[in-house]
Amino acid sequence: MGRVRTIPDWIKFSxxxxxxxxxxxxHVAGCGLHTVCLEARCPNIGECFSKGHATFLIMxxxxxxxxxxxxxxxxxxxxxxxxxxxxxxxxxxxLNLEYVVITSVxxxxxxxxxxxxxxxxxxxxxxxxxxxxxxxxxPDFKFSQQRSLTMIMxxxxxxINHNIEVVKSYYHTLRPKGDYQASLTVLAIVTxxxxxxxxxxxxxxxxxxxxxxxxxxxVYSAGCRVLTVGQYCASHRxxxxxxxxxxxxxFKEIETIAYQIGxxxxxxxxxxxxxxxxxxxFS
Length: 283
Known about the structure:
Elements: H1 19-30, E1 34-35, H2 36-39, H3 45-50, E2 55-58, E3 62-63, E4 73-74, H4 84-95, E5 99-104, H5 115-128, E6 133-137, H6 145-154, E7 159-161, H7 171-174, H8 180-192, E8 196-203, H9 209-221, E9 226-231, H10 248-261, E10 265-268, H11 278-282
Parallel strand pairs: 2-5, 3-4, 5-6, 6-7, 7-8, 8-9, 9-10
Antiparallel strand pairs: 1-2
Helix pairs in contact: 1-4, 4-5, 5-6, 6-8, 9-10
């Protein structure tokens, strides 16, 4: 299957605008923070910012992995900003967010993969605004998985999200530094400890429907019950090419299959991303 160069009509982006959008942008920039919305060039940034929703990206904006589809900068990260947890908490409080998603670049060079920085951020938000629900979208903590996950779980976030990202058959090609089984293990561990486990899948790389179903079954077997599925859109020049744009009807079929497998909450549509409408899925 070759690359697809024409973007179909059903892929429509919201142009960022409105007072709430400006407020989110102002508080993020004013605190010297990053959002995955901006760094990963999320297509929903206009809608989410306009609703006062944001996914904060901690530990800088440079990733130690080299996933072939991602727009986040790769390279050698800067040292951690010890003031970042408090700055995140201040921004969340200023925006009066009821639900916040905290994610990060992957920091393989850190002994704990950055788990303690996640913990400090959770604690800072809880201190500033105790009623805010917190979802963490974490990496696989490949080199310190058990210890780092224990640290995260001891901080008691409301939802622990870890994206499987792509189907198993494309994992090595698209995520050469990733580990499919390690990602499933993350979901299994957090589920075994009673947490809500959530995961996300992108499609459009050339995978088959059988590839998708097999991967969803693996994610379900690991204990995950909340799922997002969205269309991969090449976000920068040099990114892995799009090989298929799934129609809204095909996404509906995938959603139906996911529910048949046993997932309890599923959001599947072309522009769905992992933290899209996260608060609605939680409620």
